[in-house]
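tool=predict chain=A
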Amino acid sequence: MESNSKTVRNSSRFFLVTLFILIMATLYVADNIYLFYSIKSTFPLFKDKTYLRMLQIIFWSFAVIYPTGEITRHLWRKYNILLNIGVFWLGFMGIFSSFYVLGDIAICIFNSPQEKKIGAFSLSLIIFIISLKELFLPVKIKKVKIVSPKIKNETKIIQVSDLHLGYLKSERWLKKIVNSILRMEGELILLTGDLIDCNYRCIKKYITILRELGESKNVLIIPGNHDYFSEFKIFKRVCEETNFTLLDNKCKSEKDINICGVHDPTGRFFGFNRNMGKVLSSISSEKFNILLSHTPVKEKSGNFDLILSGHTHAGQIPPMELLVFLVYWDPWGLKKYGNTIHYTTSGTGTWGPPMRFLSRSEIIIFELIPQKGKIEDNG
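tool=predict ok
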């Protein structure tokens, strides 16, 4: 029976990964074709065959870098510079395509002159350059104060999310994050998913650094969608080797706080379902109840005082910055629904291109204060 279950999970994982690759490859090719002809029609100089040939060589040389990097990564199972360059092309595509689409809509609806496309190109270039600030800025430390009569002694907890450790991250980058956390006074570290983004051979170089965190702090973690994509058994092994406590439909009590974690909705495709009934049966109304849910969820039961999520990255760059606000009820920041406080972080790391336009990578320090009163967000 267990063997059949494992076969089903492996088949589901293979099907979903294959489907994802096919969809993304189709979108990638279509977007590149659209973007090429959009840029070509923006500048009159490309009517000259010499300049057009130059555009073709430069554009399509960059366009093939990312898929080539991904293919070689899977073949050789190691880092390659093509992948690092390629993700910036993904950022370029996302930003420029977004504003060219808006420009084309304006031309169709308002009969705007074709020359207005230069505005779309210029705005895209400015936003692309601004988004590169993520390469140079440190992770933002944000403090949120929550006052509750359920808290007997002032407590600090730290939320870290979406590290996406893999080929696009470095040990030096992770070491800076861990050292920053170790200097903080938080009693609990809550990791809200998407810890890993590759196989164990790739991830093992981060184990020692993560173990330093797990042995120094009380670290509780839940899986995110990428942890299933990378294979849940690898994610679980990393948790065991780093002394992280995995909350997969489980709860753990710490003094007057009860922390519960659930599987991400993506997990059901891999044989891991979230079980809110099991989690709800483990909480106490006398304690300050925290739910860790990788994907933002509007929990209607009112049984939780605080719900922490990640996943959205606050969009990172256009067009995702708009899409996450359309898809998720709490795409980023602090919200209150009934008696429950929700916080969705923009993430401590980035997915894909290390770029952000309107958001910053962040670590959140929640100060739980034992008084009746208000919520204070010092972001």
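The mean pLDDT is 91. Residues 138-377 form a domain with the Purple Acid Phosphatase; chain A, domain 2 fold (CATH 3.60.21.10).
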